[in-house]
Amino acid sequence: MSQLGFPLNLMRLSPSEQDCSQKILENTEAWIARNVNKRVSLPISILLARANIAPNHITFFNLLLGIAAGVIAAFGGYPSLLAAGFLFQAVSIIDGCDGEVAKLNQKATRFGAWFDTVGDNLSFVAFITGVTFGLYHETHAVWILHLAKVSLLSFAVLLSIMINYLIQQKGSSASLVTYEKEVVTSQAKKQNPLVAKALHYGKFLVKKDFFAFLFFFLALVNLPQAIVFFSALGTSAVAVILSVITLKNRRSAKAMEAKVVNEEATGVSS
Q1: What are the φ/ψ torsions at residue 149 (nearest 5 degrees)?
Q2: Does the N-terminal peptide bond of residue 193 adopt cis geometry, omega within 30 degrees of 0?
Q3: CA distance 112 to 94
Q4: Residue 77 zone, left/alpha/beta (φ > 0; ψ -120 to 50; rest)
Q5: How many C-beta atoms surround the C-beta of residue 61 within 10 A?
Q6: Whole-prediction pTM value?
Q7: Tens of pLDDT along the chain (270 residues)?
């Protein structure tokens, strides 16, 4: 049991809880998620699972926290920014609890995955909108609004690409992690080594655990401008990359269909 690390090694876990926790940690690639977020979320999830708390209730509670972070940030000023940044980091940690409880109690559902996806993204939009509103209220700098528009527009583009893929893959999970594994990771293997490495390591920079921790740090050092800037930079970069990948996949699919039709036509004529 000690292999699970602190603080799980201090808890009395059943064999199933230990096995499930071990699998969750092994399947968590991102450093911050594995070494920071999971150390907090997993013990909480085990207690919630024992209390038979529904995963969807956790998702709804976390969505309210995300909206609260945005509302607090909208007041402007360092105290509000710091409180909102801390709350958004808490949202990132608790975000893992619904999925972990679902796995611990074997209650994972497609609706739950969709609800989690919607909740995560609404939290992000609420936080960025709140930070932007609070910063603009203080500075009245127009460039802040422009960056926020770029961020939200890019976010809408990349989200629509991923959700459209998940809708088409009716038998797959509704989690955005599925899109990452089935599209981004597989696409990285097809690129040259340099591009493949960029895609492999770049995906960790746009994961919620990383940017939530980054936003919390920037809030701690009172740099709301940097939060808006990095949000716009990150979302626009990912939107461009996913758009290129999507176009390539569609062209490949059309080329494959054309090849099949041509082969069938050739077979009929012969």
Answers
A1: -65, -40
A2: no
A3: 15
A4: left
A5: 16
A6: 0.83
A7: 446 788 888 889 999 999 999 999 988 888 898 889 999 999 999 999 999 999 999 999 999 999 999 999 999 999 999 999 999 999 999 999 999 999 999 888 878 888 888 888 899 999 999 999 999 999 999 999 999 999 999 888 878 887 777 777 655 555 666 666 666 666 655 655 665 666 666 666 667 889 999 999 999 999 999 999 999 988 888 788 778 777 777 777 677 777 777 766 676 555
The residue assigned the tokens 């909208």 is: 74
> What domains appear along the chain, each with residue ranges and CATH number?
2-269 (1.20.120.1760)
How many Cα atoms within 13 Å fall on the side-chain side of residue 31? 3
- Provide the token pair at 163: 């959700």
How far apart are alpha carbons 241 and 251 in whole angstroms?
A: 16
Q: Which residues contact 176 (CB under 8 A, 6 or more apart)?
A: 117, 120, 162, 166
Q: Which long-range contacts (CB under 8 A, 24 or more apart) does 263-270 make?
A: none
Residue burial 171-190, b: 16+ Cβ < 10 Å; e: rest = ebbbbbebbbeebbeebbee
Residue type, 139: T
**Cα separation, 83 vs 111, whole angstroms:** 31
Q: DSSP assignment, residue 35?
A: I
Distance from C-alpha of 242 to C-alpha of 150, rounded to nearest angstrom: 16
| Angstrom distance (rounded) from CA 58 to CA 97 | 7
